[in-house]
Sequence to fold (657 residues):
Amino acid sequence: MERSAIPASDSAPAPRTGVEDKGLKKNAIGFVSSVVIGVASTAPGYSLAATLGFVAAAVALQSPAILIISFIPMFLVAGGYYYLNKADPDCGTSFSWVTKAMGPQLGWITGWTIVVADVIVMANLAQIAGLYSFELVGWQAAAESTAAVTLVGVLWIVIMTTIVVIGIELSARTQVGLLAAEIFTLAVFAVVALVKVYAGSAPPASIHPSLSWFNPFSLSPSEISAGMLLAVFIYWGWDTTATVNEETEDSSEAPGKATVVSTLILLGVYLIVAIAAQSYAGVDDLIKNQEDVLSSLGTDVFGAPLDKILIIAVLSSAAASTQTTILPTARTTLSMARAQAMPKSLGKVHPRFLTPHVSTILMGAASIIWYVGLTLVSEDILFDSLAALGLMISFYIGLTGFACTIYYRRELLRSVKNFFFIGVGPTVGGVILFYLLIKNGIELSDPANSESGNSWAGVGPPLVIAVFFLILGFLLMFVQWRKVPAFFKRRPEVVPAGFLEGEAAAPGPTGAGPEEVP
Amino acid sequence: MGQIVVGYDGSACGDAALDSALDLADELDDRVSVVFGYAPPGLWGGEIAEHEEAIEELGEKVVQRAKSQAAERGADIDVELVPKRAAEALLEVAGQRGARMIVVGSFGDPPLKGMILGSTPNKLLHMSELPVLVVPAKS
Fold:
């Protein structure tokens, strides 16, 4: 293929063709942006609002301990993300890594799981965004109307999908702004709540923070697993930071630091807000308002009109997170399409905006159909699908942990550091997540544990939903397999021994397939 | 022999820009360079490289189309793919080649929309030290 089509011309300097120059992705993302990406895709404000009450119901005052324990498996696997990205920076998704380490079939299912999980969580984010839009303007009647909330929720999805498609240049900076607003308001909330607790102006149920809240040993094993099942997933999204290292300035140092910093920010925010919330209101109040802890607390702590700032925190969090959910999902399907694992049209980029518009619009449309469809059929099922989300997240993140160790199996015994960071860490993280997956699966199989209390053929709806999507995934995989078998004939690869020490080259071409070198 | 640098993305307004540039090049006896800037917008999360490769392939197609569009008129043009955003790519190539002017097409977006979307002609008008010719798309 003729790459540099420029005829020699005396006046023109040596032509630079884009193909040889891949300098773009280096130095494109600064340290601050890296941190922002990691924290923003996790959506701390919204995660707290939706989770804190349920955690309190499971472990009472030990929420801080659970938040720390839950962080461990995610942290261990995130180390795996870092190393996988080192060997295969060109794709950077669990889809591609699992394909390389464990073969195309598992890889395909991994990619599918990511897409399904993102579509499901979009419905939830949209609902939060819709609800809080009305809370912000104080229109209670509309906030209580399912139709109105759904309408505005859909509007949010449409806006965010549009923004991702046209790649508005402002949006990157908007994200920084939204996140800053979110973290700042959460911090102000925590400080004000704690000051009121110590000054004695908090409600009678308030309690002074105690070190014993951090003690994991006062929890029974069943409490730990119940709490972890809730709290592990508030760290979902944080893994993004570890995947952008190639694009980050000073790619050997900055991403590591950015990962640590965003970790600390996230863990810090979760702990501080959890402590502040439970000391101010007490456990019972958190449980009572478990569907949405922050907006009721905000009113209490700040009083009008300052209570709006917590609403802004959650709203900006949900809005920002819709964007950081659509964007990577569209890139996952783009990546899959280019690997011939999904229909080719998903790999198209828009000629003017240069974004994967087909993937993005399809992702937005699927989210809207899922969200509106389920709202019409039954809101209980919508909540049950969120419970199913946990199964999917632990599946694909856990599998990525295993993929790291398998992909690097020839490197494991070359140094103690390798052994622990590439071998033990990601595998233990994966094992914990798979343990949670099984535990969660067993619990969700009991109809009594579902939001709706429904029983579908004697099984709880969340498990049925998860299994349904798994089977649908297999069916679609076989369709694609029959149509385009090339991808499914790929053999698992392995990182050659000595790669990390600079003694061996990166494993194989990382692109979509065999590529001739010009 | 002078140089005229054209921004081309395969759209109707790109066609209009290329046409005008070729007309001018005929009259001035200049050589036309077509530039496609392919920086992916919004750098968030992983999978950037896959995205970039897809855009690069699009770029290859687009510049080939420019070449054949020029060939139909019997003109031979230079093409360049630059991994930067359109405006920066055009300025860079124009600088390197000591171009006479930069030619771009316009979608006719209202100014506010252009500002939000990041309009290339708008940016060029403010940033370029060379004359910039903005050609409206033929409707």
Q: What stands out?
A: The two ends of chain B are 33 Å apart (CA to CA). Chain B touches chain A through 47 residues (CB under 8 Å). Strands of chain B lie at 3-7, 31-37, 78-82, 101-106, 132-136. Residues 48-72 of chain B form the longest helix (25 residues).
